[in-house]
TrEMBL record:
UniProt keyword Lyase present: no
Signal sequence bounds: none
Species of the source: Pararhizobium antarcticum
UniProt protein name: LemA family protein
Cell compartment(s), UniProt: Membrane
Main location: membrane
SUPFAM superfamilies recorded: LemA-like (SSF140478)
UniProt keyword terms in alphabetical order: Membrane, Transmembrane, Transmembrane helix
Amino acid sequence: MMIGLAIGAAVIVYLIFVYNSLVKARQVKEEAWSGIDVQLKRRADLIPNLIETVKGYAAHEKTTLEEIVNLRNRAQAVPGGDVAGRAAAEGLLSQALGKVFALAEAYPDLKANQNFSELQGSLEGIESEVQMARRYYNGAARDLNVKVESFPSNLIAGPFGFNKATYFEIANEADRAVPVVTF
C-alpha cells in the first residue's frame, strides 16, 4: 500500500514538473516573440522619417515610397499571434526598403545627407537586432516544440492545450536578404 502511494505521488510530482516545464517554455517563446515585435516596431517607427528625407530628393520616386508606406502599414496590421503572416509582411517590407537605399546611389545629394545617413545607420542596427531576436525566438519555439512532441511530455501537452510554435521564417529567398546599406 505504501509503495503504491509512493509511486502515485512520484507520478503526480512528475506530471507537475512536466506541466510547469511546458508553461515555462511557452512563456519563453512569448517573451522571445515580444523581442521581435519590439525591434520590428522600432524599424516601423523609423520608416516615416526615412520616407520624408527621401521625398525631398527623389520626388519622382513616389510609387516606391508609397509602396513602403503601404507595406509598413500592412505589416503593422498583422495580428500579434500570426508569426508566419508577420514574417511574410516584414520580408516584403525589407525588400522594399532595399529599393530606397538603391535610390541613394542615384541621388548623390541624398547619399551625402546627414539625416539620411543616420537613418540608414539606425535601420542597419535595427536589422541586426531583428536578426538576433528572430534567432532567439526560433530557439525558444524549437525548445517548446521539442517538449510538445517528446514522449512523455506530449501526453500532457495535448490535453492541456500546448501547441507547437510557428517559426519566424521568411518564405521567399530574396526576402531573406537584409537591405544593403552603403555609404
